[in-house]
Amino acid sequence: MNSLADNTIMLKVKAGDLDKMGLLFERYNRPLYGFLFHMTYQRETSEDLVQQVFYKMLKYRETFTATGEFVHWMYSIARNTLKDQGKSLKQRVKHENTDDHAERLSGGLTPEEHLEKKQAKLGLYKAMEKLSDSHREVLTLSKFQELKYQEIAQILDISEIAVKTRAHRAMLELKSIYEKTER
Amino acid sequence: MKCEQYEELFAGWLNNELKPAEKEMLEQHLTGCAACKAELASMQQLWVLMDEVEVPEPSANMQADFRTMLNDYKAAEAGKKSSSIGILEQLGWLWQWKQRWPLAYTLAIVLISFGCGYLFFNLAGGSKQDKQMVELTSQVHELKQTMMLALLENPSASERMRGVSYTGEIKHADKEVIDALLSTLNNDPNVNVRLSTLDALTRLAGHPEVRQGLVQSITQQDSPLMQSAIADVMLKLQEKSSVKSFRELLKQKDLDHGVRDKIKETITQLI
């Protein structure tokens, strides 16, 4: 859809029209922030990281070759940025935060539904938080960023079969943690 | 095929990533295997629940910070470009000289005369000229310093960053410069400005008051980026007196977990 245009825009940035990066920011700041949020569960950190990723895309714009999609390049840089930060990707979200978050999300439900759904969501949050980094990463990319296995394979630089296996194990791990989590 | 092998297709089925043949195979198995069917159903329940996971809204700062960063970047890039154009232009001039040899000879003679004159006067009144030179240098130095201090007060982040970068040219930073930089380090609203200030101060780490200021700044930084950058600097400087401040920082409950790990590591390496 946007892919051709994305690459064209990024090539313009590469050629020196730096203002065009603003267009890419408009398109991708939210998805990128979403990805970083799932990888850190920290709002401010994620915002900081979004800036860093866009800064790196400006700084290393020469390395963009347009042989792949712009978004894949962006996510690869985002992954490297997370690594560079020396942050363990797994950062525990504080439990009161999880509660607040679930509370807010389940605001519009009837009382009975409310309680049940709230518990279920809370359990899911806790389970996702406990998920190993690589499993959370593959689930985030496929479920929340809605990327295809073939695209994820490019971003993670592994085979499509490996993505398939990893996604399967991730779901198994998530389910097993979810079922064990006290609610 | 065993149930386990079918199970491997579950995630792909939920994600709509199965090949038509795989999908058909799995669905056929499900009609005859209640256990797999139940397993997939409960996984699907979780998968659907994941749709309700929401990411909190980023603050409005994210947009504004991006604009600032882009403008700063453009300004820095423009600065680089203009200086490289300058060199190119000068090279162009040289090229033109080459094509006009007669003119080049004239120039050579003029240069030689200047050289002789300079040598002559230098020998005659060397000490006086030296004194004037020193005075001039110190005036330029003062001018740069005043400009830098003024730039640090500028409302635009890119101008403040330019101010910070001037400190690289100031050879002997005095107390006023150091104080201004430390105050920028602790109070500037823009994280990019704070980061480059930290860089500039690291270069001045020979001054004891800079080291002291950096150590004091540890507990005043609230951005994880800055906290982690300061930890790097302290490690580089092997500043053992920072350990106390880091321990103080670790007491903060809302400290970023990545930073927490990093600081713990820094402390172990420093002790």
CATH fold-type name of the largest domain in chain A? Rna Polymerase Sigma Factor, Chain: A
What is the CATH architecture assignment of the largest domain in chain A?
Orthogonal Bundle
Low-confidence stretches of chain B: none
* Biggest chain contact: A-B, 55 and 44 residues
Q: Spell out the helices and strands of chain B N to C.
A: HHHHHHHHHHHHH
Quick one: overall form of chain A?
Answer: globular
Order of helices and strands of chain A: HHHHHHHHH
End-to-end C-alpha gap of chain B: 59 Å
- Span of the ends, CA to CA of chain A: 42 Å
Q: Determine the CATH superfamily of the largest domain in chain A.
A: RNA polymerase sigma factor, region 2, helix turn helix motif
Number of strands of chain A: 0
* Largest sheet data of chain A: none
Strand content of chain B: under 5%
Structural class of chain B: mainly alpha
Write down the oligomeric state: heterodimer
**Total DSSP helices of chain B:** 13
The count of domains of chain A is 2
β-strand percent of chain A reads under 5%
Number of helices of chain A: 9
Given as residue ranges, the uncertain stretches of chain A (5+ residues, pLDDT < 50) are 87-96
What features would you describe in this structure?
The complex is a heterodimer of chains A (183) and B (271). Chain A has helices at residues 3-14, 21-40, 43-59, 70-84, 95-105, 111-130, 133-144, 149-156, 160-180. Chain A has 183 residues and is mainly α. Chain A folds into 2 domains: 3-84, Rna Polymerase Sigma Factor, Chain: A, CATH 1.10.1740; 131-180, Arc Repressor Mutant, subunit A (Orthogonal Bundle), CATH 1.10.10. With 271 residues, chain B is an all-alpha fold. Chain B is 79% helix and 0% strand. Chain B has helices spanning 3-7, 10-14, 20-32, 34-49, 61-99, 101-152, 157-166, 175-187, 191-203, 208-217, 224-237, 242-250, 257-270. At the A-B interface, helix 2, helix 3, helix 6, helix 7 and helix 9 of A face helix 2, helix 4, helix 5, helix 11 and helix 13 of B.
